[in-house]
Write a structure and sequence with these properties.
The chain has 23 helices and two strands. It is mainly alpha-helical. This is MFS transporter.
Length: 495
């Protein structure tokens, strides 16, 4: 085998060979898409920053769940207040699939950028309105009803957010660096979570319980207004992704121009296998995600009777640790592959979930910190490759819709309900290790899913041209394709 192709990962060599056999010639300049560095940086940076703002908005509810329960459900017992608050939290996830069914097909028809701008402003409005809702003591039952409506606006907008943002960044990223560049999207997610956690922590430390209950809890939600304006401005400045633009330029829009209902049927009928793989990976990622970001603060305060300040700082430490790890792990996935990273994390989850929660329950400071760092490391193993892995499962024409459907149905069924289910099971059984068992089940599902996951590291996206980051990489790929084409002909006699 020539040295120019011997260095290629097997999955890349196989995909390039399939393309060369189909076209019966080596690549030319028109066959390889070059993404200029300034455009790439702006696309990745603006997407990550917009995602940071969006998930700051969405995440602050998790950190304030116990306080919100007291404000909007004052007549209930403390346990019922928390469960009611998490039930409202979970309600947003019920409407997420509806948002996905609307925004996904729309993103495949009118473009990723326009839909992402829409979801940004909807999320900001939904979050800002929560900060304005009067308490139950002021307007009675109307208060929790308005809270539920605001959460549903948040959930509906989020239904188009992650699928669109991952699709957008993946379609902009050069094939060799898609794992690293796409990991910046979830970097933005956890920075948003961390900022929300930091703000709530500062408020809890600076204000008395009475002040926090009376007006302090509203401040993080009210910040969403100006953040939404900034995020909207940034997303309106983005250009459409090269893969989607190429599809438009070549008039290959038949599938993308179908009605939403028709596209949904097509995805389920023709892409059900990758759809199931997508949902399995999303289950693994988001059960872990919402256990750490959504449930751990309440687990510390309500189940273990620790102070809200300690709980908030603990989760903040975990978020900062993920931020430090995630782009490193994204880069690692470009070199070792997505499958090994998922498989290692899932297997470790099965083995380490119980020890992590035993550490969280231990007295002192350092044992709980070690426990949250352990869980956060596992979460980073799932978060880092997701934005590169999930879009690669589907072709360009249906990528946004398929991502929105698979991601949001899985999150609605398993991710967003995690805090509610975990709290309810702990309350019913009295077993403080139930959350660990829940994570073990998620790890087992993830391990099975990885067996059916095709390796996509450095592989061009389905329905898109090979993507490179410079003219030099373009020339190298063209040279490699010529060597691979000749090698294939020598082995088979004809292509």
């Amino acid at each position: 085998m020539p040295s120019t192709i011997a260095h290629l990962p097997q999955q890349v060599r196989e995909e390039l060979t399939r393309r060369l056999r189909r076209t019966r010639r080596a690549f030319g300049e028109d066959d390889v898409q070059v993404v200029e560095a300034p455009l790439l940086k702006r696309a990745v940076g603006a997407s990550a920053l917009g995602n940071c703002m969006e998930w700051f908005d969405f995440g602050v509810y998790s950190y304030l769940a116990a306080t919100i329960g007291k404000v909007f459900f004052p007549g209930a017992s403390p346990a019922a207040q928390v469960i009611s608050s998490f039930a409202t939290f979970a309600a947003a996830f019920v409407v997420r699939p509806l948002g996905g069914l609307v925004f996904g097909p729309l993103g495949d028809r009118v473009g990723r950028q326009k839909v992402l701008a829409t979801t940004m402003i909807m999320m900001a409005l939904g979050t800002f309105s929560i900060g304005l809702i009067p308490s139950y003591a002021t307007i009675g039952i109307a208060a929790p009803i308005l809270l539920l409506l605001a959460r549903m606006v948040q959930g509906f907008s989020t239904g188009g957010e992650y699928g669109g943002a991952t699709t957008f960044v993946a379609e902009y990223s050069p094939d060799r660096r898609r794992g690293f560049l796409s990991s910046w999207l979830d970097f933005g997610t956890f920075v948003g979570y961390a900022l929300g956690s930091a703000l709530v922590t500062v408020l809890n430390l600076a204000l008395t319980d009475a002040q926090m209950l009376h007006w302090g809890w509203r401040l993080p939600f009210l910040i969403a207004g100006p953040l939404g304006v900034i995020g909207l401005y940034m997303r309106l400045k983005l250009e459409e992704s090269p893969a989607f633009q190429q599809q438009l330029d070549e008039h290959e829009k038949g599938l993308a121009q179908e009605s939403a209902g028709s596209e949904f049927k097509t995805i389920v009928r023709e892409h059900w296998r990758p759809l199931l793989v997508c949902m399995g990976l999303v289950l693994l990622y988001n059960v872990t995600n919402y256990m750490v970001t959504g449930y751990l603060p309440t687990y510390q305060t309500e189940t273990l009777d620790r102070s809200s300040g300690f709980a908030d700082v603990l989760v903040l430490i975990g978020m900062v640790w993920i931020v430090l790890l995630i782009t490193f792990l994204g880069r690692l996935s470009d070199h070792v592959g997505r499958r090994p990273l998922y498989a290692t994390g899932a297997a470790a989850m099965i083995v380490l979930a119980v020890p992590a929660f035993l550490l969280l329950r231990a007295d002192g400071v350092w044992a709980p910190v070690a426990g949250v760092l352990l869980l956060s490391t596992l979460l980073a193993c799932f978060a880092a490759p997701s934005a590169a892995t999930l879009p690669a499962l589907f072709p360009t024409a249906v990528r946004y819709a398929a991502m929105a459907i698979g991601f949001n149905f899985a999150v609605a069924a398993f991710g967003g309900t995690t805090p509610l289910v975990a709290e309810a099971l702990v309350s019913i059984t009295g077993d403080e290790l139930v959350p660990a068992y829940y994570l073990m089940v998620a790890g087992a599902v993830g391990l099975v899913t990885v067996k059916f996951l095709p390796e996509s590291a450095q592989v061009p996206l389905h329905g898109s041209q090979p993507m490179v980051g410079s003219r030099q990489e373009q020339r190298e790929l063209i040279t490699t394709s010529k060597a691979l084409y000749s090698f294939s002909k020598d082995r088979s006699g004809a292509v």
